[in-house]
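Key result, reporting period 2: structure in, sequence out.
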């Protein structure tokens, strides 16, 4: 295995507010890696910076051996990084199919795009059954599926998922986590940000704790699950 994504000493600010002070982590090809930590710790800011939506103030982001810290968002997507943002930002007035096709807008291979759309419908049959309906009519869980499906449509090498379980029922959360595992088994590398630390660590090859803009603890998911500091802070058990 080799490092697909390497974030080193990343620092990102919104004006005078330093949201990310020193975040460092590595995602190896084929892994599921999660970032956990309290609200406001800087996890979303980190993903948005990797996507090219925000600029780092310091530090580096390397993808497949090359720095992408200064690259524009469309080139980063073109290199193979897709982002399913927090709060399932689907286009409410567009149909399921139209939302999915937007995720593939950088691609020219029509038959591949159709194959990938079919794969999204296999993973999430409800989207296939309602492909002509407007996304705004869907439940929160279904919109989350659509946001993940849209990110899959660029056929990414690295899929970043920001809080995919937010606001979902336990059953729907399980369905999303099973899907993340299936995507990994299909060869996609996953970077996951989750408030649901227990489930995220159980699924992940490696986890990182982000605290006040810094990565403070790291290890294999199962080791972090057993770590008393993690349990006390994030799992509600000392
Ligand atoms: P959450 O789970 O709540 O999204 P997070 O770990 O993802 O938390 P961020 O959303 O990255 O954290 O926020 C990090 C810090 O940056 C917080 O203090 C937040 O208030 C601040 N912040 C986030 N977005 C902005 C913005 N657009 N302008 C100013 N400050 C911001």
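The corresponding designed sequence is given below.
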């Amino acid at each position: 295995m080799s490092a697909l994504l390497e974030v080193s000493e990343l620092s990102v600010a919104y004006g005078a507010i330093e949201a990310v002070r020193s975040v460092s982590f590595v995602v190896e090809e084929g892994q599921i890696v999660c970032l956990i930590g309290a609200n406001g710790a800087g996890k979303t800011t980190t993903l948005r910076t990797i996507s090219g939506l925000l600029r780092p103030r310091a530090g580096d982001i390397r993808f497949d051996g090359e720095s992408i810290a200064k690259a524009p968002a469309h080139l980063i997507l073109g290199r193979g990084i897709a982002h399913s943002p927090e709060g399932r930002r689907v286009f409410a007035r567009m149909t399921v199919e139209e939302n999915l096709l937007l995720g593939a807008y950088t691609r020219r291979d029509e038959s591949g795009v159709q194959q990938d759309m079919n794969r999204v419908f296999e993973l999430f049959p409800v989207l296939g059954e309602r492909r002509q309906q407007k996304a705004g009519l869907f439940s929160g869980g279904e919109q989350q599926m659509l946001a993940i499906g849209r990110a899959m449509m660029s056929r990414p090498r690295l899929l970043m998922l920001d809080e995919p379980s937010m606001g979902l029922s336990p059953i729907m959360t399980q369905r999303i986590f099973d899907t993340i595992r299936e995507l990994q088994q299909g060869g996609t590398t996953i970077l996951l940000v989750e408030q649901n630390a227990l489930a995220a660590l159980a699924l992940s090859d490696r986890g990182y704790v982000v605290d006040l803009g810094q990565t403070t603890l790291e290890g294999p998911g199962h080791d972090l699950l057993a770590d008393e500091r993690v349990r006390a802070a994030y799992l509600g058990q000392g």
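The first strand starts at residue 3 and ends at 14. The beta strands are 3-14, 17-28, 32-36, 58-63, 66-67, 81-84, 158-162, 189-193, 206-211, 214-220. This case is discussed further under Risks and Mitigation.
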